[in-house]
Amino acid sequence: MISLGALTWALTSLYNLEPKAHRAKMETIEIKDREHLLLVLDVSPSMRLQDAGEAGDDSRTHRASALVKSLLKRVSDEKMHFTVIATYTSAKPVVQESRDREVLLNILDDLPMHWAFESGKTRLFDGLEEAAVIAKEWRANCATLVVISDGDTVPPTGMPRMPPSVGGVLVVGVGDPMQGKFIDGKNSRQEVSTLQQTAVRLGGFYHNGNEKHLSTEMLKQLTSSKKDAATGQ
């Protein structure tokens, strides 16, 4: 009886306690020492189609989230700051220079962000232009740009020029590159050649992320490209 009474008192006390969030205080990193991961994320309706992943039954958005989460697990630099730009008919910065990975993970948790935009054709380059504006004031070669899209509507001209702060670029494709699905009266699939050309024009790498995560070797190549840009080689 005594034990049962003590348990009841403990549960009652716990229930009445005000919830508190306990987070480790982050040391402020000076601007000159910051590293940046700049993510341009395609959130258009075609990214909701389910033809991605190993089994081909994931949405392209969900696959994009899984790829970024896998990438974050291997980014251990405490100086890393995250910036996310959502792109559909325009571009909207969602997070700027955050070090809180939980915030980034919540954003990537399959949120229907396309509802924040007017409907229309995808303007991926708007996201790249916004990324260039944000990164303009950062120091040289401190940022890695990661673009995730199905490449459904990418124009052949008008590629924005990245500022010197962007030392490495990775373009990741999601969605079945062979057999597409219909949306808005047309067949939508991952446009591999278009995304490859986008990567080349940005001076970076392309990765088909529809089934495979980013390899450690790919990440090493990306890091090496930043070092080469920094040394001018």
What descriptive keywords fit this protein?
233 residues; alpha/beta; six-stranded mixed sheet; two-stranded antiparallel ribbon; 6 helices; 32% helix; globular
Describe this structure in words.
With 233 residues, the chain is of the alpha/beta class. The protein is 32% helix and 23% strand. The strands form 3 sheets. Strands 5-4-1-6-7-10 form a 6-stranded mixed beta sheet, with helices on both faces. A two-stranded antiparallel sheet has the order 2-3. A two-stranded antiparallel ribbon has the order 8-9. A hairpin with a 3-residue loop joins strand 4 and strand 5. The termini are far apart.
Q: Count the E strands.
A: 10
Radius of gyration: 21 Å
Can you count the helices?
Answer: 6
| Helix content, binned percent | 25-40%
Summarize, please.
The chain has 233 residues and is α/β, with parallel strands linked by helices. It is built from six helices and ten strands; from the N terminus they run αβββαββααββββαβα. The chain has a six-stranded mixed beta sheet with strand order 5-4-1-6-7-10, with helices on both faces. A two-stranded antiparallel ribbon has the order 2-3.
